[in-house]
Each structure stands twice: as structure tokens, then as C-alpha cells.
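Dear support,

I submitted the protein below through the web form. The confirmation email said the job was done, but the results page showed an empty box. After a refresh the structure appeared. I'm attaching both so you can tell me whether what I see now is the final result or a partial one.
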Amino acid sequence: MTTLICDCNQTMPLQSKSLGTALNENLTLHSALCRREAPAFQAAIRSGQEVVVACTQEKRLFTELAQRTEGATSPIRFVNIRETGGWSRDAAKASPKLAALLAAAHLPEAEPVATVTYKSAGRLLIVGALDQAEQVAALLSDTLEITIFAQGVSMPAQIGFPEQERKYPVLGGSALKLNGWLGAFEASWSKDNPIDLDLCTRCNACVEVCPEGAIDLSYQVDANKCNSNRDCVAVCKVAGAIDFSRPAKLMTESFDLVLDLGKKPLFTLHAPPQGYFAIDASAGLASSGLPATMLKLRDMVGEFEKPKFFNYKSKICAHSRNESVGCKACIDICSAQAISSDKHHKQIVVNPNLCVGCGACTTVCPTGALTYAYPRVSEQGVRVKTLLSTYAKAGGTQAVLLLHSQTEGQQAVEALGRSVKLKKTLRGLPANVIPLALWHSASAGIDLWLSAIAFGAEQLVVLVTGEEAPDYITALEEQMQVAQTLLNGMGYSGVHFHLLRAPTGASQLANLDAALQTLIAKRPVTPAVVARFAVVQEKRSTLDMAIDHFMTQAPITLPEAIALPAKGSPFGSLLVNRDTCTLCLSCVSACPASALQDNPEMPQLKFIEKNCVQCGLCATTCPENAITLVPRLLLTPERKQPRVLNESQPYHCIRCAKPFGTLMAIESMLGKLAGHAMFQGAAADRLKMCGDCRVVDLYSANNEIKITDIR
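What the results page shows now:
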């Protein structure tokens, strides 16, 4: 393992000796590693050992230099210690944080996972005003196969007239719908335009003679303006393209890519499918984002892969049992609509082609049936533990872990660091704030958050920007409220979890800077001893280990239980109304977590609170509505032990005395059927018999007509 640090122009007060001690290395501080000291970099990458370069500014230069260096075999990684710590008013005290970042950079890459493949042949559908679509098509047609779905024309004063030359296939109609993803889009629409665009020669005679102006240069008839004078039909006799009696026809066609320039996007999802782009093209080719999107489209021909971001275990999923739906948190929160219900098979279905890898579903999943796969939560746990343990080893205190996305979140963090050099009023990232980039800020949840506090962090902050769906923000707030309630209930006073909204504009960086300074002034109570457990893939197991650690280190005498918020709670108890519960045990068969159990020896409903995930399937299934969810965390040993929620005397068969049901269930049934004509006399007595005796009595009765006696 070799670490190369560089301080160009001595802009950072780096302490190579203390950093080397924390990393168990002899570090050399360079000042021009990418220039005159490049031989030191080349010597390091010839060693065969892993090399970490503490510079992302010149990552491209180092990469090219490595490719041209003969005998270079070392894997190279890059880490930013400049904007994240070196460029800060607290830079002189940031050595522990820098050591932590360098140590984390030496961790192995995430284990490879299955991939999702997209294949695109470049068939592009452009939706929008015909003149705008043709302008865009002219810049893409050398690479892509263009088809246009015309939706009128834009104002000529802004854009100009459509071309008369038919360069691209043009579709028209109404009720355009789109589904699918990159390489597999399917467009469907109603072909109800009286003008057949395949037969139309664009002679414009119909446009000229229409007295109402119901036909524009996209050659579609506006039914709201048309008065059925049919002058257009008369002038189109030769081509025969106009026929108002032609029945509407449902059309479908497949495409690989879609560029939506329409006024109303075909997809209104926060995370639309891969390969779909929606742009407001009111300003023509100068429209914001349009040039960049066209460049992306030109590169989207071929075969593409992305990680399969999730793992799913249907056996522990609390979504559905017996055709009843319980937990659907993942379905409700998915901003890509990639998750659907399959209650018939007692599971959910995740479409990997639509999944964008935000991980919000794994954050709200109470059982851990959905887990984040790239990187795995166990790998993130190792990273968190490495950061915090190295920080403490290097003398750091009051650690604050800052989780942010690797896109806009990363940009906000780095912009704040750069602004310190330009705006002397800003302080930058505090020395005790350790940033950790995630694929998406919603991909880490309560199991990793609580583990971070157990591993030595005083506070955990999730930095969100405008890239998150509103539902994600709500879910993060709910999960943080649960985590905070747990810690406060065990005596750890103060606020440990924060959701920090980062401004996207550079002019508002002062607000982010001020928020961080306010945050580090807080000193919540944390465990006196750092936890040693490992974060595992099983969410409930990690939560149990974290809670056990907090209970062991609790600074107060623990209460019997901690009441938790109703929304988002993964823990809780059940309240059973014994006056209405008949011990039918339908709730037992519905429980996906084995929290509810029966007793084969006697009529009892037993409950293990540790297993309960508060999915609500038991309450939904109960025919008597006798079950109420009670979100809480029980802190006594009884949490892991079965206890009886309800029990009843067995009902004995009036013929053989064998127990076959519960007293309350049979009495309830007798009461409901007491007035029924089919259950009077001997028939009513049979309800009091076990199944065997009921059959024997039915066939031995001599005073009743049997179906075999009917001729």
C-alpha cells in the first residue's frame, strides 16, 4: 500500500508525519507530483502495490501517465483531500479527517454484482412541434434513425416553417402513450387524423383552402376548429390523402430512444426511464439543456450495462399474504415506478430496467427483504467503521459523518471547499465533518445510521439537494425521527441525526456553510465505548446488534419500552382485543416474520415482539378487526421471548368430547347462525361436533332426507 500526497503551491497545511502514523506509512509530502515530481508517481506504480493518489484535480493526467509508464502494474485510486479538508478555515486541525479519508481510499472496491443490459440500435422518436423536431433531427440524423411524432407546429416567428422535403418518417394522431426503457420503448397512439401522412404530398392545398384554419403545416386537422365544409377533400382528389370517414386505428411502434419536446411530458416521473429525455424546446435549438441532451443521444447507440442495484428476498417480504396487502412502503416511494405488487405470489416485482439505483426502497423496507447491492450495506459498514476508527486513532474527536450523493451532493461539498479560497467569509467543511459519498443520498438507512453512532460518530448528517424526489425527503425524515427517538429513549440526549438541504446555486453556499457551523456546535450524548460489531446484509440483524450496544452503554436506567412514531417504525407490539378475537389464527398464517405463532397444545395466540416489523398484515387479515399495531421498542428481555396475547378454553365435541376449536369461536359461530333456517335442530348440534363426528352423525340420521334418496 502506497499513499502519495501533494500540496501544490502549499495551499494546505498538511502534516505528513501524523498522517503517516495514522496510516502506518512513511509519507513524503510532494509539491508538484503531477509535474516535475512525476517520477515519484511512476516509481510507485511500478511497485505492484496499490497506490492512492490524494488528488482528483489531475486524475486524468495521472491516468494517462500511468498508461504510458512501462512496467506500471499497480492499481490506482484517487481521493480528494483538498476541498474536503485541506481548503478550510479548520485545515490545521483536519489531519485526523484526512487520515480517515486516505484510509478509506485503500479499502477494496465493491464486490461485482449482476448487471442489467440495454441494447440500442439508435431508433429515435422525437415528439413535439414538427418544425422544432425537424431542426433537432437535422443534427442527429447522421448517427440516429429518426422518426417524428408531430404535435402541431410552433410559432413561425420563433422557429420558422417546417421543411417541405420529406426527410424523416412523420407520425400523427392523438392519445400518444409511451412505456418501456432504453432499447425497448413502445409508443401507442390513435391514428385518427383525417389526413393520411403517408399519402400526403405536402402540396399545402388543404392548408390554403381551409376557411377555418383548422389545418396547420403538420398536416393534422384540428377537430375543434373544423366545420366540416370538406373543401380540403375536394382539393386533395388526386393524392386522396384526406378521408373524414376513415375509422380511428390503434397504432404501436417500437423505438430505442425518445426525445420529448412536447408541452406536456409523456413521463411525469421524478426518475423517468433510461433513454427518455424531456426538454422544453420553446426557445428552439437554444433551449436550455437541449444541446447537451443531443450530445448524449449521439452516444446512445450500442450495448450498455448498469449494476443491478438491489437484492430481493421474497421469503421475508411483508408485502402480501393470503391475497391481503400489508407493507407497500417500497411501492409507494419508488420514483421510477419500478416496483409493482404481485400479491397472488405474496411478493413484489422489481423491474431492473426501470430501477435507477436510488435505494430509497431499501431504506424504508422494515424487514430487509430489499437490500442495496452496489455497494452492499456490509461494504458501506466497513467504510464507515474505517473512517471513524482511523479518525479516532489519529486523535480526532466529536466526529460528524456527512453522507451525500456522488453527483450534486459531491459538487456542493467541493464547491464549498473551493469557495473558501475565494470568499474569505466562508469557513468550509469543519475539521470534524467527514464526508462519505453514496450513489444516492437515500440509499443508506436506519441500520447504517445507528451503526455509525455506535462506531463513534457523534452526529450523522444526510445532505440532500434538488436531485431527490420529495417522497425521499419525507421518508428520510421519518426514518431519522425513528432513529432519534430510539437514542433519546435510551438516555442519549441531544440530536444525533440531521437532514441538511444543500443549495444548488453557488451564491447560496454561505447558507450551507452556516448550517455546518451551527451543527458542529451541538454535543449530543453518545456511547462511552465504541461498538465492535460488523454491519451485515441482514437489516434486522444489524439493527439488533446496534440496539444491544446502545442498551449496554445506556447512561440511564432503561425504561420498559420506548414509544416510536407510527410512520416508518420497524419495531412494535400488537394489541389484541380479547373480547372480539376468536383465536381463528388467520393472523398467524399471514405473519411474514414469524412474530405471531400458535400453540399446538392449546388455543393460544403467541407473539415474539423482536420479530414484528409492523407491516400490518395481521390487522388487515383479522376478520374481527381485533388487532391494533403499537409501534414501540421493548427493552426488557421479554422482547425476544414468546408471550401470550390471547388464549381461550378449547371447545369439546358434544359427541366424542375431542377438542376441535375454541369456546369463543364456536359460540360466535352459533350466535351468527342461530336464526338461519338451515341450522336448526340436529343441524345446529352438528356445529358443536368435530369434523369426524359431524360426518358420522349426518349419515346415521334416519329422520332426514339424503340426496341419494332423491330420484
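Response: this is the final, complete result; the empty box was a page-load delay. The mean pLDDT is 91.
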